[in-house]
């Protein structure tokens, strides 16, 4: 057996020991063959090292080995044909496999780039600052203490285009500080929605701060409930559902804009009356609360959970299209979905069949099912009934 860092893993290696996350979730069992998708999953869960079958030698890329003939030392050409294959032509490698492998390499390079590391550093500073402000507000601090918090978040937002921002956030999941990373993400996503709605600068800042503070009430929930990996009992869920009330209580009387208080209290309310804590209907829900609700759900769906992997943006759009028009403010959810879909137009994707391609056209009446050009050159319209079993599984 040999222990390797995740960056040195290659598809085809066999897992020798169970791979478990810091929260106890089993990612892979002994005997399982590593695939590009599994290696990406390990990186997502911040798994540092993996034990695989084999002898302790320097890791090699099987594709590179195949491309470099070994010196011939004997006259048995039949053996040399097995160990000394000619360098394969690009067309000889399955196109889908090549694209996925290239993408994993690109993702690893991205995470090691100075561009990503700068964002990661700024993101970490925002998280630390957010923690300090939560503690300060809980201890009695007022809205005036949040000026620098908002400025840092605004600077982080400005540092990227919309596509870059969402791509970076997908690689910045902090599983050890879920309240704060989620709150920062919601603040950034809400600010994007506010920009798409052409809000004024003051309203944009208020909306961003509402996103940053919307879950402050979760700091009052017992950790054994907050961090429970499995499904809540009815009693535990009832406790979790108190966090909007607890959050408003913390912020109340400290000079915060009324829309921030409303967003803290109402971000789990739904337009059809199915939300909590008060079961409000659409016309009873504050506009900023309605926007924060969308950002909150999007970030939750694109984050890993104990019972499922994170969903890609097109899968989330599909979920919103199924029931979101009833549960969320119509104007805001339609604005969000249309811009999110267009953000990923021309992006490389992988279907549930593992075939890869590129988004070439967004169907406005069916945003989660665009027109795809496969790497083979074939064009398929996912909104056609004959392709109803196909869907976008991941964005590459």
How do the strands and helices of this protein lay out in sequence?
Layout lengths: L1 E4 L13 E2 L5 E3 L7 H9 L4 E4 L9 H6 L9 H7 L11 H18 L1 H25 L8 H12 L3 H9 L7 H19 L4 H13 L9 H4 L7 H7 L2 H9 L6 H9 L20 H15 L11 H15 L2 H14 L4 E4 L4 E6 L9 E4 L4 E3 L10 E4 L1
List keywords for this structure.
396 residues; alpha+beta; Molybdopterin biosynthesis moea protein, domain 2; 5-stranded antiparallel sheet; 9 strands; 9% strand
List the strand order in the largest sheet: 8-7-6-5-9
Work out the helicity level: 40-55%
E-strand count: 9
Instruction: Show unreliable segments.
Output: 57-106
Task: Write out the CATH superfamily name of the largest domain.
Answer: Hypothetical protein af1432
Please name the CATH architecture of the largest domain.
Answer: Orthogonal Bundle
Rg estimate, integer Å: 24 Å
* Mean residue pLDDT: 82
Q: What structural class do you assign from the helix and strand content? A: alpha+beta
- What sequence of helices (H) and strands (E) makes up the elements? EEEHEHHHHHHHHHHHHHHHEEEEE
Shape: globular
* Main sheet summary: 5 strands, antiparallel
CATH top level assignment of the largest domain: Mainly Alpha
| CATH domain fold name of the largest domain | Hypothetical protein af1432
């Amino acid at each position: 057996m040999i222990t390797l860092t995740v960056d040195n893993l290659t598809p085809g290696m066999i897992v020798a020991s169970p791979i478990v996350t810091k929260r106890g979730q089993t990612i892979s069992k002994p005997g399982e063959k590593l695939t590009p998708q599994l290696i990406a999953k390990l990186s997502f869960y911040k798994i540092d090292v993996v034990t695989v079958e084999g002898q302790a030698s320097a890791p090699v890329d099987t594709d590179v080995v195949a491309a470099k003939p070994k010196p011939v030392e004997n006259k048995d050409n039949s053996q040399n044909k097995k160990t000394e294959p000619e360098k394969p032509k690009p067309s000889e490698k399955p196109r889908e496999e090549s694209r996925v492998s290239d993408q994993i390499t690109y993702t690893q390079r991205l995470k090691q780039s100075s561009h990503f590391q700068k964002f990661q550093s700024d993101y970490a500073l925002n998280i630390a600052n957010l923690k300090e402000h939560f503690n300060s507000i809980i201890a009695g601090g007022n809205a005036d203490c949040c000026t620098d918090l908002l400025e840092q978040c605004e600077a982080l937002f400005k540092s990227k285009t919309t596509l870059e921002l969402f791509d970076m956030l997908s690689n910045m999941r902090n599983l050890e500080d879920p309240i704060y990373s989620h709150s920062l993400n919601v603040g950034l996503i809400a600010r994007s929605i506010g920009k798409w709605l052409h809000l004024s600068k003051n309203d944009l800042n208020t909306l961003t701060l509402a996103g940053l503070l919307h879950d402050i009430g979760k700091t009052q929930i017992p950790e054994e409930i907050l961090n429970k990996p499995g499904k809540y009992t009815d009693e535990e869920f009832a406790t979790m559902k108190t966090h909007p009330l607890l959050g408003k209580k913390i912020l109340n009387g400290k000079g915060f804009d009324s829309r921030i208080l409303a967003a803290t209290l109402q971000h789990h309310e739904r337009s059809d009356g199915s939300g909590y804590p008060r079961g409000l209907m659409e016309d009873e829900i504050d506009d900023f609360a309605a926007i924060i609700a969308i950002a909150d759900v999007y970030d939750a769906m694109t984050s890993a959970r104990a019972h499922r992997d994170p969903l890609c943006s097109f899968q989330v759009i599909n979920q919103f299209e199924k029931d979101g028009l009833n549960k969320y403010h119509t104007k805001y959810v339609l604005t969000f979905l249309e811009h999110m879909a267009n953000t990923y137009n021309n992006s490389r994707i992988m279907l549930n069949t593992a075939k890869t391609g590129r988004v070439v056209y967004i169907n406005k009446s069916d945003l989660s099912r665009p027109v795809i050009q496969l790497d083979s050159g074939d064009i398929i319209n996912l909104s056609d009934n004959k392709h109803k079993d196909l869907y976008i599984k991941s964005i590459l």
